[in-house]
GMP synthase [glutamine-hydrolyzing]
Amino acid sequence: MTEKIIILDFGSQVTQLIGRRLRELNVYCEIYPFNKIPALDASVKGVILSGSPFSVRDDRAPQVDLENIKGKLPLLGICYGAQYLAYHFGGDVKPSLSREYGRAKLHIVSDSRLFEGVRDGSQIWMSHGDTIARIPEGAEVIASTEDITNAAYHIIGEDTYAVQFHPEVFHTEEGPVILKNFAIDICGCKGDWTPASFIENTVRELREKLGNDKVILGLSGGVDSTVAGVLLNKAIGSNLYCIFVDNGLLRLNEFNDVLSSYKDMGLNVIGVDASEKFLSALKGVTDPEAKRKAIGKTFIDVFDEQARKITGAKWLAQGTIYPDVIESASVNGPSATIKSHHNVGGLPEKMNLKIVEPLRSLFKDEVRRVGRELGIKKGLIDRHPFPGPSLGIRILGEVTTQKLEILRKADDIFISGLRNTPCSPGIKSASDPLSDATNLYDSIWQAGTILLPVKSVGVMGDERTYEYTVALRAVISTDGMTADWVHLPYEFLAKTSNDIINKVKGVNRVVYDISSKPPATIEWE
Ligand code: XMP
């Protein structure tokens, strides 16, 4: 049984970060909405209460039943969590005279296991409008700041701790030490949840669950489905049937390159060239949503047709990852929202298949770490996200074979250039925040080229030209929900633009997209 810490989410923007930080300590954890506490079996070593946009004094403040938790399991309240414990257990919470926001210095006022080894005077990050005016009964203050006395407290006789600041955010310098003290020393977690242990446990569980059954998996060339495929292959070998569809909208040489990598890894993979079907479904379609629908529907038809050939299959595997399944705490009403992921919508029901999702407990960079541990080569692991509808939504307006050819060449020049250009030292890798990036591609979260539906006048030699414009897009992001455009070096942009205009027939102008999300989106359609 994998030991774990439960994080109860009261709707803070940074709840997921608590999870990330614990996982970096090799401690497994799961995030649940405050009103959906899971069974507290022996695997649960401790509980963390997150922050919240609410004040504990608000009528609509989220309430949690701590009957089976407080005093029985190690408990850490963060921000709202700290104020909640004070408010409901004999202390008091009042509006702060000045909003306690931003950096402050932590002064340790009493020895505690939570702050063991934490440097006195280190920077912490605050973000709250209320303050703890009186700590709960039986508690002792363990840290203060210049402005607030009750920055952190411990309830004597219990493993209950509370901090009004956010140890999970980067700006809290000793945050990792504080979380480690809680998880390892106070909760007693071993901190042995590593990619290797994840693989060992998952392979064992998959073997138990799947037995001798046949499983179908759609491979996309992306990191998640690739890692899911290799993991399943390790567990059930040739009972895994992978399907990789060429939708005719992939990047230059992508289908053949990725297909041979899959075969080299020993995957039992069927490559299906369905380009014609996709291109005819897209003929004359210009509306972005209609294009997405046409591509999605064709994919399901092609996948369904192939999957039916695998007689006796019982399972459909999916590369769903943790951010797709975390139920966010809905602080504004009882119904919690769930993002779900239906790459092959409707198929499981139609074919009566059960779903298996071996990566559903992992964050994206953990998927990559597991992939590295499985020996998958770098070129597949560090790939930028790529949308399901592929270049179909990067050719604005109608998709044609001629436009695809132009876009593929231009995009190949941009992407190869990013891969071949070193980046400045000290910049973190977008695919592995624990290491430094070695080239521009690795320092960027996602990059791509867009073919615009406008022609403009240019001059080449003595000749007037009237050709297409391509836009280059490169962004940094953590989850695709927000993104900033990347300040690519001018020399790189100059060289890329020159190469594209000189080498790609049909393009006489290159522009760089300097819009952030929001208000723009990453894709143009
Ligand atoms: P936007 O354009 O919404 O993109 O800022 C956010 C992230 O989602 C990807 N994306 C898609 N992925 N099917 C997908 O599988 C789609 O229809 C789709 N549209 C956008 C996009 O590439 C970016 O990573």
Notes: Confidence is low (pLDDT under 50) at residues 333-342. Residues 292, 385, 387-389, 446, 480, 517, 521-523 surround xanthosine-5'-monophosphate (CB under 6 Å). The two ends are 45 Å apart (CA to CA). The chain is about 30% helix and 25% strand.
